Amino acid sequence: MGLLDDVGRTMLDAVETSGRGAILLARAARHMVRPRGTFGRIMEQEFVCGVCSIPVVAITALFSGMVISGQVGLALRQFDALSTVGGVTGITMCRELGPVLTAVVVAGFVGGGMASAIATMKVNEEIDALEVMSIDPVRYLVVPRLAAMVVGVPLLTVFADAVGIWGGWMVGRYTLGIPDAEFLRSCREMLMVKDVWFGMFKGLVFSIIITMVACAQGFAAEGGPEGVGRATMKSVVYSSLLILIANYLVFSLVWRPFLDEGVRM
Amino acid sequence: MENAGQGPAIEAINLHKSLGGRPVLRGVDLRIGAGRTVCVVGCSGCGKTTLLRHVCGLLKPDAGRVLIGGRDISAASGDELAAIRRNIGVLFQSAALLGSLTVLENVALPLIEHGVRPLAKAREIARECLRMVRLEGYESYMPSELSGGMRKRVGVARAIVERPGIMLYDEPTSGLDPVTGATILELIRDLRDRMNVASLVITHDMEAAYRIADGIAMLHEGRIVESGPPDAFRASANPVVRQFVEGRSEGPMSGAHAAGARRDG
Ligand SMILES: Nc1ncnc2c1ncn2[C@@H]1O[C@H](COP(=O)(O)OP(=O)(O)OP(=O)(O)O)[C@@H](O)[C@H]1O
Ligand SMILES: [Mg+2]
Q1: What's the pTM?
Q2: What is this model's ipTM?
């Protein structure tokens, strides 16, 4: 009973967070059209969310690309299809692993930081102070973060794609013995521009999820340092969950009806 | 406590508020005329900060209204609320400075966010306000590098930077040495005399109240139990006021607040 209760409460809480995130997004969107006077803060956030997560994203993508190429290679070797490893690795990275892994890393690294920064401001009455100074906390805090994230995460995604493919290529060359030319030719033949765009589009969707969940949790924080910790933890967990769910929804609502040609894989 | 012929700058009418299921304000009535300074005193936890948060619209009353210059702040939202607040400066009990900004940036923030340009002009006004609270030389410090009393003074500087017609101070002198405290009290009096600012000052410090107040009101068990000019207040026969003014531990107030809470909870 207790377990069911907990599961139920967590689900409800996640749903509530999504709802509050959506409301925040609507409020932020009004200012996104002309984010006046926020350029400095956008660049600051760009640095925090983009530049600082590059090493972590690189390592994650590198090892994922390596293991995909290795596993796919071993499986395809039985069918004498080693020549397609490059393409399969490329497609897997660009359509799925690049965007999802980047988003999950960013959700922890950047989203968690955002949630704790805003939650700290909330419990220290800094948000109240902004409000009584007639400074809209959404415009001041959310808009620069959202702007930085919607640009930063898709770019990080492409970077992750590239690093992952390179890792797969290296495993192909040294472990599977695939000639470079063959790996690259298969990549060129199978991988299409729309695969990369689709990954970036997902990065955009995920960046909005991460920012909105983090900010909603930050603004809802209550009760001192424990409240900050709770908001941070929930932000990371909920945004990771929502990323994975949204990932499937995007596949079934965008990729399958509009982008799949039924010719590959 | 009101200037004849002028409407009150601040008027709280029959305010009721419960927090955490417990009544905190139980029918507070308070009027502060334009250009008047009223001190609200009362023991710790009696709801002084709660009252102040209603006056600046951070809390909405369960019943009753707060009028700021005749406009109902408790019913306002969005742009209207922001417009009313532009004329209110608030010093929070915790100062509530933005931890990520320097002292100067904190003080200049309302100006910059409200479009004062060039930035050098906003900074110059902010510097001037820092001089008024005797903090020149600390412009580039972070709030975490300041003492509690210094933070409070930065909070005062930030609150007055837009020259509001109404100031709300939550314990402006607590944590200050007598000399610095006197500076702040003089500043409060100065703002009234030179700029006709109406002030609500929350304090436990009876000496401070006698020095600056045009009127003193005592909050006890959720109501204003006594109010009047300082001399009359000092001479009040009300046993609650007598106990508070004389600072005795025995009397009608000992544990009265907690007892009241239990009775009503
Ligand atoms: N968010 C809240 N949830 C529940 N109870 C609250 C909340 N905020 C304040 N209270 C309660 O309301 C009462 C009044 O609090 P308030 O902060 O207004 O007191 P105060 O008069 O400013 O005290 P102090 O002089 O110590 O600052 C307290 O008993 C407190 O427990
Ligand atoms: Mg208080």
Answers
A1: 0.89
A2: 0.90
